[in-house]
Design goal:
This protein has helices at residues 10-22, 26-41, 54-66, 70-79. The protein has one domain. Helix 1 (10-22) packs antiparallel against helix 2 (26-41) and helix 2 packs antiparallel against helix 3. The model has no long low-confidence stretch (mean pLDDT 79). The protein contains four helices and no strands. The protein has 91 residues and is mainly α.
Length: 91
């Protein structure tokens, strides 16, 4: 995708992260979101269009709960408030 000059956006990343979560690969989903966020914070043009939103956190929280990672899900949920993200009715 990037080789053809197309920049992935939030929807693209959310889909990839959701795919990992659906097959139980929550660790890979979290790693992907951290990698993309780190690259964005480094001002790397490759991931400049991606910013984590409540949707991506909702996807990861759902995956964590479904794979029995309840303690980690609670920690992530609590961390949303420090990121200026407010959980909504979907979470």
């Amino acid at each position: 995708m990037q080789a053809k000059g197309l920049k992935p956006n939030t929807t693209t990343y959310n889909s990839l992260i959701g795919g990992f979560c659906k097959v139980g690969k929550v660790s890979e989903a979290k790693d992907l979101s951290k990698d993309m966020l780190a690259c964005g914070l480094c001002n790397n043009d490759r991931f400049a269009a991606w910013k984590p939103d409540i949707v991506v956190y909702s996807i990861i929280l759902d995956g964590m709960c479904k794979t029995g990672q309840l303690f980690e899900a609670k920690e992530l949920f609590d961390s949303l408030l420090t990121k200026d993200l407010r959980p909504d009715v979907d979470i």
